[in-house]
Amino acid sequence: METLRPELSAGGLTNGWPYSTEIAQRDTLIRQSHERSLQFGLSSRDRPDFSAVPQATLHEALEVNRFLYQHAAPVMETLYEQIANTHSMVLLTAKNGMILHSLGDSDFLAKASEVALRPGVEWSERSMGTNAIGTALTEEQPVVVHGRDHYLYANQSLTCSCTPIFDPHGKVVGALDVTGDERGYHSHTLALVRMSAQMVENQMFANLFADAVRIQFHSRPEFLGTLVEGIAVFSPDGRFLSANRSAQFQLGLSFNCLQAHTFSTLFGQSMSQFMDRLRSAVGKPLLLRLNSGVSVWCQTPYKSSKGWYGLGQHDAGADEPEGGAAGLRSRAAPAAVAAAPAPLKASAKQGLSSLHFLDTGDAQVAAVVRKLQMVLDRDIPIMILGETGTGKDILAQAIHNDSRRAAKPFVSVNCASIPETLIESELFGYEEGAFTGARRKGSTGRILQANGGTLFLDEIGDMPTQLQARLLRVLQERRVNPLGSSKEYEVDVTIVCATHRNLKNLIAAGSFREDLYYRLNGIVVRLPALRDRTDFDTVVGKVLSSLCDGPVPAISDAVLALFRRYHWPGNFRQLHNVLRTAVALAGRHGPIGQDHLPDDFLDEMAAVAASPQPAALAPAPAAHEGLSAPLPGRSMGSADREPFSQQADPSATPAAGAPQGQPSVAPPQLQSLAANQRMQDVALQAMADALRRCGGNVSAAAKLLGVSRNTLYRKKDLLPPDCWV
Ligand SMILES: Nc1ncnc2c1ncn2[C@@H]1O[C@H](COP(=O)(O)OP(=O)(O)OP(=O)(O)O)[C@@H](O)[C@H]1O
To answer: Which residues form the Sigma-54 factor interaction domain (predicted)?
Structure first.
């Protein structure tokens, strides 16, 4: 009988890879698999059995696995697009390791093995020894089996990345695998395979539990509607039905343990209480607290007597999508099943639905609004630039709402949040029967869903290059050709796109097509960062009232002063989050004081103030500190503005620059923040003075101060311009 190969029994299967704990774990996994292969009576010199089962058996297997097959096939197409020309194949197997479907070119296989990866061949460990499919299915975890990891010598020219696929009941139903030439190994392949499998699982979930209460949750609201959100489903009376892998991870419970739970034992409230909250908050994500104490944001389609209501409805007038939860995703797409989850942005946007509502006093925004009003309905593509969270999505929605297309769909696609593998089918759709035979239904694709209305391509800079050419063709010819279809469909859409990236740089780097750029930027508008808005106080007030159903609490002057000094990297989104927490902590009657601000926000302010790099936090207002020009971070000193609320906050303490006469106990972070801020301001003042005395000569000023020239240059943006001349 054969024994283990020496490099395995010695416990160091490095196989040319750098050694680490992760590799050590993988080695253990591979070694155990080799031991099993040995026990199956296999010899590493055995010739593998690549014979396929008879056609009738294969058809039977396809029928048994139809649910899996239907959901996986379109995802495999897009996965294959990503690895095309890498001498690899994408494989879907049943849970016994039998290949159900394969895509790609087997030209990398030796002549004798060309049949190895076709449907009907079984890749279980029992028949092939250690291999990614068999081992992933046995271990129920993703695995790469590379070159000499394979038990059979005959398979050692392969590199395989495989992950099991779990059905909505938590059982392994099959595996998704990419197999290629060993020399073409790529470290990202397993990640792509895992993302694709996650997509298959989420789609099976959405379709199987269309009538259940589906809770989609994540600790960060921006991840709602993406692949990483947790999904747990319950019967209307709160019985646990199922949870995807992310939900199990976030809840800290395995699928089996979850079976013993109900909605109320997991989320600390009854299903009927939750439904009441949902009814009054349609369109807004809700905060739920897990047993672990962690808070998560949640969204859920909500079924009333009239039908389903849900979040992330971007189709104009789509408050009541038809046809249950599936309809929720695909209102304009009658043929679509298993549609990829739409990139949802959950927010109550009613108050922001028209361009003129966005004009709240900032001159740059007013100019943007004016420009857009002039080009509305002229079929000119619009490109919106701006940092993350500055309201590009809201602006696109407002453009649509003010246009003559308002009654037609507004379809939003976030090119950055959809895995590259899925963008193509998400955008262009795929044809009925294109992948899996007559019963397979197709997907309309987002471009066709937007027909007659507006297609908003958010984060266009993240569009994969190979799809840019296809998009360009659609824009030029106004026709769409779904995947797997020989037909073309006419489409009439207004295109609005947005990005926070510098497309010119992307063009220079070769990752964005110049011709597409010119096609998209008919008119370009830029939204200002929150810190640069001259209507800052007004927007704080506006966001605050949008978060309150009843009375709106006041904000203390100290908090407002902090807000004005902060650089708001997350812009409106961050302001919403900070205020949402503050409102919850302060209660509806407020006022909102520093104690009500989230700890991470206070920590960040303190850290920024303590940092020797002053890039982010603005110094104290110019008037207060005696510097003569406004300083970056906020374009305008707080002294230039009327406070949003004058109501005193008994819990608040003035930070640096806050008005006198406020109560005097500050949280420790803010005390150190204020002290650090003062030190920074004194240092800046000294630098400005030295530069002025030296007539702007940096070397002389640096010598005078006893610091390096670099120190002065680093502060350049924080010093008034007049000291450099
Ligand atoms: N003018 C505004 N007034 C109040 N809230 C706003 C405004 N603009 C945006 N918001 C809110 O800020 C959040 C982020 O807005 P939006 O998604 O439109 O930003 P974005 O620039 O598209 O962000 P990203 O680049 O990250 O996609 C949303 O909750 C939105 O409701």
So the answer is: 358-584
What is residue 432's predicted lDDT score, i.e. its pLDDT?
Answer: 62
- Assess whether pLDDT exceeds 90 at residue 439: no
The CATH number assigned to the domain with range 209-311 reads 3.30.450
Atom of ligand 1 at shortest distance to CA of 345? 17
Q: Is 388 in the pocket of ligand 1 (CB under 6 A)?
A: yes
The CATH number of 6-195 is 3.30.450.40
Buried b (16+ CB within 10 A) or exposed e, 205-225: bbbbbbebbbbbbbeebbbbb
pLDDT beyond 70 at 232: yes
Query: Which residue owns the Cα nearest ligand 1 atom 7?
Result: 391
For residue 272, give Cα distances in angstroms to 217, 235, 284, 293.
18, 12, 18, 21
d(CA 404, CA 331): 21
Over the chain, what is the mean pLDDT? Answer: 75
- The DSSP H or E segment spanning 309 is strand 307-309
Q: Do domains 209-311 and 531-669 have the same CATH topology?
A: no
Q: Which atom of ligand 1 is nearest to the CA of 384?
A: 21
Q: What are phi and psi of 296, to 5 degrees?
A: -130, 150
Which atom of ligand 1 lies closest to the CA of 572?
12
**DSSP percent split of the chain into helix, strand, coil, nearest 5:** 45, 15, 40
Model's pTM, two decimal places? 0.45
* CATH domain 531-669 topology: Helicase, Ruva Protein; domain 3 (1.10.8)
Q: Are 610 and 617 in contact (CB under 8 A)?
A: no
Listed by start position, the domains of the chain span 6-195, 209-311, 350-528, 531-669
Answer yes or no: is the C-beta of 104 below 6 A from any ligand 1 atom: no
Residue 442: band (very low, low, confident or very high) from pLDDT cuts 50, 70, 90: low
Long-range contacts of 268-271 (CB under 8 A, 24+ apart): 270/238, 271/213, 271/234, 271/236, 271/237, 271/238
Helix (H, G, I), strand (E, B) or coil at 433: coil
Give 571 Cα–ligand 1 centroid separation in angstroms. 8
Each residue of 259-310: pLDDT tens digit? 888 998 999 888 888 888 877 765 678 888 887 778 899 988 755 433 333 3
Identify the CATH homologous superfamily for domain 350-528.
P-loop containing nucleotide triphosphate hydrolases (3.40.50.300)
